[in-house]
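From the pipeline queue, job 12 of 40. The input is one protein chain; the requested action is below.

Action: predict structure.
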Amino acid sequence: MNAMEFYVKDRKAIAITSISRINNTIYLGLTGSSHALASFNTETEEISMCNEVFPWVRDRNYCTKIHNSMGVLSESSLLIGEGNHFTWDGLPVTSQYLKSELPEVMLERKRKQGFEDITFGDFCLQSLSEWNRFKDDPGGKIVKYDIKSSSIEIIAHLPKYCYSQSMIVDQKRKRAFGSTIPDNHFFYVDIENKTLYDYGRISEYAHHNLVITPDGICYGGWMDYYTHSLKLLKFDPEKKNLEYTDTIILKDVGGKIAGNQGIDQWVVTRDGEVYLGMVSNSLIFKFNYQNEKLELLGQATKSGRIATMDEDEEGNIWIGAGYPMMHLIKFNRKAQGRDRFVDYGVVNEEYRRCYFHASCYYKGKLYLGETDGFSPSLHVIDTKKL
């Protein structure tokens, strides 16, 4: 597949884990240092590092991150949730963890960029014996980043010891909704009043991403521990009520893929339709939010994970699915049967692992943020030339 690749050339940056667009600039939320934000100019096709968004972690010797936790607040500002380089156990990633999860060869891409002496120790602790949660990780913050002045404003504080694992922004109503790591809390942010409401633990898992429907309701997923089923989670901001519905999305939530489980991604189309993709078997559903019914539409690809979903001008939904080598798939909402899905194959076969965690579509091109490769890159695909 013909994809252009643009690198984020920063020593501490190891992944693109969020994407938001304002006009012709695409903002890249990173796993990296206090400079966890970069920008890509779609006209000049250049990546630049932004000012610090989390200056309080400047001297910390392991990564922070913006993980599925960034949204457009206005034409001049972003709302960002502070994440952390934690494992799913809610503990900092250590060198031993990285060595067991990732091959040493993945560091070669970083070394080719001029960081010849780079090691896994640049991004994590050698062991947990060096870590003090009370001192090092007291809890994250929700910040507003002004793109004109490159300055930040703290909007709210997350629960003690918790960080943002996912956050979605309702620009129209000045609200945000998210979940934390560790402990999987659900939180709601009243942006104008700078107030965060903590609703406690959701469930063991099954809520990797959230969605806001056109009527302003937030939905996600929760896992019924006793039945191992994935069920619909609902939050009405007017009532400030978090509802654990009995609506079953999957009778069996399925196994974990790269530590993830349950709902992987949502998309709301311009005409107000809502679709969601699963970790398990790359299943895609349509969500009729008016009656809270779900319709299984098919399987995007044979391996698991639907991690990116974007709508184009014609109403097609472009899907990034499959792990560890992600395929690009076009879902034609107007077609029937097998004709609905067109699999264009693996996006990048050069790397041993090439997986996209965040994306956006703009003027005929898909912008895919690569993760798990230690040299975060933006893959740009002209969909008209496929």
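Job complete. The domain at 204-346 is CATH 2.120.10.30 (Neuraminidase).
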